[in-house]
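Handoff note, outgoing to incoming analyst
You'll be picking up this chain. Sequence as last confirmed:
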Amino acid sequence: MQEQGDKSAVKKKVVVLSGAGMSAESGIKTFRDDDGLWEGHDVMDVASPEGWQANAKLVLNFYNQRRRQLLTVSPNLGHQALVKLESDYDVAIVTQNVDDLHERAGSSNVIHLHGELLKAQSTIQPSLVYPCNRDISLGDNCEQGSQLRPAIVWFGEEVPLLDQAIEEVISADIIIVVGTSMKVYPAAGLTSFAQDRTKIIYIDPKPSINEVLAQAHELQVIEKTAVNGLPNLVESLVVGQ
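Most recent structure output, in case you need it:
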């Protein structure tokens, strides 16, 4: 018999789809400028296998700068609010962000679709992944003797955790979309896997409702940033549980 007060077996599933706008409020640059350049670089020069082959030193320096900046910032109120959901809900965070701010805030189930900035991987064996909170230089090798690279999913590479993210979305009772326009694929297609019963909550100061979201049976739009919108939303979800 289930003991009174034990809600672990009946917790509703909340899946959070987070993007660059969430980290931007902690001071993380969103990389892409208005002209489409990433910190002055063409995206394919610093975020593709071809760019790596052409100029590995440039790519390493680009991500070394991103990593140094990450170590100077902290989770914001939006990150912290999501942690509180875990007391009453089964929470999974599917993020396009490569930072560790969700984890630092205390979230326990985070899926990084685009990789992790604080990890390095072997160039010949992608399964060889190492913690990395320092610069990566040419000559830094894995245990098999090959050059280390950022553990980032570059354009043109498969997204290894996409199937896991899809499974989370399929099982969701509530989906919260925050800090992302959901226009970049494959992440943009995730909401299409939601069951008909799923409630979708879209938090964005300037929301652009795409066709998938507009067809949801129950769509709630909160025209605020993550920092301003998530704390109150989480409070209402916990109280209403």
